[in-house]
TrEMBL record, chain A:
It holds the Pfam family PaaB. It is an enzyme of class 1 (oxidoreductase). Its EC number is 1.14.13.149. GO terms for molecular function: phenylacetyl-CoA 1,2-epoxidase activity. Gene3D superfamilies: Phenylacetic acid degradation B (3.10.20.520). It comes from the Bacteria. This is 1,2-phenylacetyl-CoA epoxidase subunit B. InterPro entries: PaaB, PaaB_sf. It comes from Bradyrhizobium frederickii. Keywords: Oxidoreductase.
């Protein structure tokens, strides 16, 4: 007998105060409460987190890897967006 | 991101694989790029990884059984807490791996069902019994030690989700091996009976552990393509040799004898082990090991006994979702 599928959730954990939540993996759970509890058990057995977010995987819209070029290449040529593009004489000191 | 939903929509390109795409794929592998779930990949790459990662996951789950056998009989509270934590880790490892396998487009439910139906394999080592407490020490020291040897190169595997799961697993696995070695050390420093128990355990596990690395290179059926795709970075025999070289001095420190009277040491320091009895390995894989039937029966019973929990959770979620829709409509 095939088992019916349980919804998939993506898990995000914030490790310390001041840091952002980071994707750590995914899990299956029938609802949000159980997803949070399962995330606690699976992903924070060694004090890895201070806060957990769980998001239904189906709610995530992802960019298409086939369109990576179109999405990200425009930024590559804009070196003037980086501080090192600009010359500041050494005498001025750190800026 | 570990979403299986995105993968299912992918067109099935079996047989029609564009040679240009395949060449591009290989070029990415050669450039040490990581392949991610929604990237194009050859059907055979997907199939190989689904098989390997799911077997790895099944092994973690079945691997809980031989050790779980001793949780209630651990000699001290400290040992019991450690063993319980280790078995919980194995469960977690199984779940990380199922999640990684799912990104290739097969659901966890299907993967688990294949295992319960006896269609998917798990590591042959878990078909051996844990007869004494020393076996818990040996499993941590040698079985986890061999697993670490296998898993460290997998942290650099070409498939991103598998590599990331392995990084997590390896971080946690080190505690397993150390707790096992500590158990052995305590037994070996104990009474004559305790030391004899440790030696007996090593005698029973040594050869099955060497078999964990898989068939010799000359006969391994999956190695060539796996190496080309950078799923595998070392051959079975290379890893086995590394393991033996690392383990022999550890056994010497314990004062235990490796049960291989024919073992010799090369001038370059390698310990050369005797011929492995591959008929035993084949027998265990074919389902005729000491515990194959027990393990499968225990997994099936656990799955069936848990069915009401899955059903109740699904019914509860459905009821709450229904109530929310009804409230929203008011």
């Amino acid at each position: 007998m095939a088992t019916p599928n349980t919804p998939l959730w993506e898990v995000f954990i914030r490790s310390r105060n001041g840091l952002a939540h980071k994707h750590v993996g995914s899990l299956h759970a029938s609802d949000a409460t159980m997803a949070l509890q399962a995330a606690r058990d699976i992903y924070t057995r060694r004090g890895e987190g201070l806060s957990i977010w769980v998001v239904p995987s189906s709610a995530i819209t992802a960019s298409d890897p086939a369109e990576k070029g179109m999405m990200f290449e425009p930024a590559e040529s804009k070196i003037y967006r980086h501080p090192t593009f600009y010359e500041v004489p050494e005498e001025v000191g750190h800026m | 991101m570990y979403t299986q939903a995105l993968n299912t929509a992918e067109t099935d390109d079996r047989g029609l694989e564009d040679a240009a795409k395949a060449a591009q794929f290989q070029a990415r592998i050669d450039a040490e790029e990581r392949i991610e779930p929604n990237d194009w990949m050859p059907a055979a790459y997907r199939k190989t990884l689904t098989r390997q990662i799911s077997q790895h996951a099944h092994s973690e789950i079945v691997g809980m059984l031989p050790e779980g056998n001793w949780i209630t009989r651990a000699p001290t509270l400290r040992r019991k807490a450690a063993l319980l934590a280790k078995v919980q880790d194995e469960c977690g490892h199984g779940l990380y791996l199922y999640a990684a396998a799912e990104t290739l487009g097969t659901s966890r439910e299907e993967l688990v069902d294949a295992m319960l139906a006896g269609k998917a394999k798990y590591s042959s080592i878990f078909n051996y019994p844990t007869l004494t407490w020393a076996d818990i020490g040996t499993i941590g020291w040698l079985v986890d030690g061999a697993a670490i040897m296998n898993q460290i190169p997998l942290c650099r595997c070409s498939y991103g989700p598998y590599a990331r799961a392995m990084i997590r697993v390896c971080k946690e696995e080190s505690f397993h091996q150390r707790q096992g070695y500590e158990i052995m050390l305590t037994l070996c420093r104990g009474s004559d009976e305790q030391k004899a128990m440790a030696q007996d355990s090593l005698n029973r596990w040594w050869w099955p552990v060497l078999m964990m690395f898989g068939p010799p290179d000359a006969t391994s059926q999956h190695s060539d393509t796996s190496t080309k795709w950078k799923i595998k970075r070392f051959s079975n025999d290379e890893l086995r040799q590394k393991f033996v070289d690392a383990t022999v001095p550890q056994a010497q420190y314990l004062g235990l004898t490796i049960p291989d009277p024919g073992m010799t040491q090369d001038a370059d320091g390698h310990c050369r082990y005797s011929e492995i009895d591959w008929t035993e390995f084949k027998q265990v894989l074919a389902g005729n090991g000491p515990c194959n039937r027990d393990r499968m029966a225990a997994r099936r019973k656990a799955h069936e006994d848990g069915a009401w929990v899955r059903e109740a959770a699904a019914a509860h979620a459905a009821k709450r979702a229904h109530r929310q829709t009804a409230q929203a409509a008011e």
